[in-house]
Amino acid sequence: MKRIAFALSALICLAAVSCGNKADSQPKISIFCDHIETIAHQENISFAEAATRLKEMGYTGADIRVFQRPEEINTLDSLGFAHACAITEINYSNKDTRELEDKTLEFMAERGFDKLLLVTGLMPQGGLTKEERDDARQRIASFTKRVADAGYTIMVEDYDNRRSLCYNSKLIDTLFVAAKDLGLVFDTGNFQFAGEDAMEQYEHFRPKIGHVHLKDRTSPTDMACVAVGTGCIPIVDIIDKLKESGYKGWYTIEEYGARHMLEDCETGIRIVSAALTD
């Protein structure tokens, strides 16, 4: 009986390892929860059905806003979507940000996320004085330390709006000087908006990259987003560079503004999956 029990135990362990290896071998491709909402609206289906279709395509993770509807997060959890990255929007042009910072940390702990994208808000139309910019950076640095001390990874991204505190490489670097624990969500399409070359900025920021947004643009002069892998951004080349560097994190396909979101998400994951498994 002991031999039989041992043999059964060994078979169970082998099966578990086999399943684990299979899961580990899946490309870590994520989708914005916002995109699932858009698909549900465009296709006139439920959020759960939209999420199910994306899961069947091969999406395995989700980027979720801190203030997303709880029922949507619960649906994604029930379908087995991994928590790729949490997103919090805190406008550091305002002085009082503590309440939103506290709620963000509570969300991270309650929902089990380990990565956070901090969207730092937009400066007012008239801009900020040097003193106000310095103050905003120091408050970002203070929050960064709180998040890092709690054991989470916190990042900003190259946000495509000239009123952002981090819309180009120069401004991002000033944030990194102020906050040493701050990382980067590398957005492949946003450096194009800032008039910078995505491949050059990849090389510049490579040690700071903790998460990736795959976004494509129509052309160097047309900032409209198109299905990932079908525009002017060298998506496959960037993925190859990330793979060569040993990056093991998530790739979030971004299709904001898509008129046919489901179709574009299907095109994007087909191209990205092929690049990741090549």
How is the topology of this model organized?
Elements (H helix, E strand, L loop, with lengths): L1 H24 L3 E4 H11 L3 H11 L3 E5 L4 H9 L3 E8 L8 H14 L3 E5 L10 H20 L3 E5 L11 H10 L4 E5 L2 H4 L4 H8 L3 E6 L1 E4 L2 E5 L8 H10 L6 E3 L7 H17 L1
Parallel strand pairs: 1-2, 1-10, 2-3, 3-4, 4-5, 5-6, 6-7, 7-10
Antiparallel strand pairs: 8-9
Helix pairs in contact: 2-3, 10-11
Features:
11 helices; two-stranded antiparallel sheet; eight-stranded parallel β-barrel; globular; disordered N terminus; TIM Barrel; alpha/beta; single chain; 50% helix; 278 residues
CATH classification, class level: Alpha Beta
Radius of gyration: 20 Å
- Order of strands, main sheet, comes to 1-2-3-4-5-6-7-10
Can you name the CATH architecture?
Alpha-Beta Barrel
β content, as a range? 15-25%
Helix-and-strand structural type? alpha/beta
Percent helix, as a range, is 40-55%
Please report the distance between the alpha carbons of the first and last residues: 47 Å
- Specify the overall morphology: globular
Order of helices and strands: HEHHEHEHEHEHEHHEEEHEH
- Describe the main β-sheet briefly: 8 strands, parallel, barrel
Counting H and I runs of at least 4 residues, what is the number of helices?
11
Q: What is the CATH superfamily classification?
A: Divalent-metal-dependent TIM barrel enzymes
Q: Average pLDDT, to the nearest integer?
A: 91
